[in-house]
Amino acid sequence: MADSSGERFFTRTLFAAIGVMAVVVGVYIYDGVNKLSNAVIKLKKVLFRMPELDTWVLDFFFSVENVSDIDLTVTGYVLDMKVNGKHVSTIINKTSQYIAARGTSEIDVLATLKPSRLKKEAGAIEFIAGLFDYKNMQIDINGYLSVQHNWMTVTNIPVSYSFKLGDMLTSSAPETKVSPKK
Predict the structure, then answer these.
(1) CA-CA distance, 173 to 143, in Å (whole number)?
(2) Residue 54's closest CA among 131, 124, 2, 142?
(3) How far, in Å, are 47, 118, 121, 138 from residue 124 at the CA level?
(4) Do residues 50 and 29 touch, judged by C-beta distance below 8 A?
(5) DSSP bridge partners of 46
(6) Interval 79-119: pLDDT, tens
(7) Which helix (H) or strand (E) holds 14?
């Protein structure tokens, strides 16, 4: 028995409505993720630990102000850390961190440095000499993060943050946007 024209019309209308709803929801979530590039990031504090003689751990705590209307979860990031322009660590994290809609959340970034590797990567002498002039030590963190809202994930969102260690000690750490460079 052949489909009636009424059944075909209903089926086509149903699929069209589902398609339109999917596009609207996708655009809404994409807009919220896109607004993440307007999030204000401020470095709150840095903790330094030395669990072993050849292992230094820097724990950065960033405050992230989410200006979008949707909750987001950072699902991971890959960041390169430079000190005075020299690469000292690659930070990879796959742990989820929640960012509330229209709120401020804290993101924890843990960097592990091996001083023995600094000889190859950044020059241990320059790095250690920089510690004595720590107020002028320039720290640059650049890379990409991935965020998710419900079922939609957006990857490779550029992140860039730079500050002088001396600014941290005087509570004048700069604010920055998630993606200030295009």
Answers:
(1) 19
(2) 124
(3) 21, 5, 8, 16
(4) no
(5) 60
(6) 998 887 878 888 888 888 888 888 888 888 888 877 776 65
(7) helix 5-35
Beta bridge partners of 128: none
Provide the whole-model pTM.
Answer: 0.65
- Token couple for 167: 């600014």
Classify residue 136 as exposed, middle or buried by CB count within 10 Å of its CB (0-12, 13-18, 19+). exposed
Distance from C-alpha of 121 to C-alpha of 148, rounded to nearest angstrom: 33
Beta carbons within 10 angstroms of residue 22's beta carbon? 10
Span 13-48, pLDDT tens digits: 877 778 777 777 767 666 655 555 566 777 788 788
Per-residue pLDDT of 135-182, as tens digits, reads 777 888 899 888 887 777 778 888 888 888 777 666 555 554 444 333
**DSSP of 129-175, one letter per residue?**
HHHHTGGG-EEEEEEEEEEEETTEEEEEEEEEEEEEHHHHHTT-PPE
pLDDT in tens, 124-147: 566 666 666 767 778 888 998 888
Enumerate long-range contacts of 16-25, CB under 8 Å, 24 or more apart: none
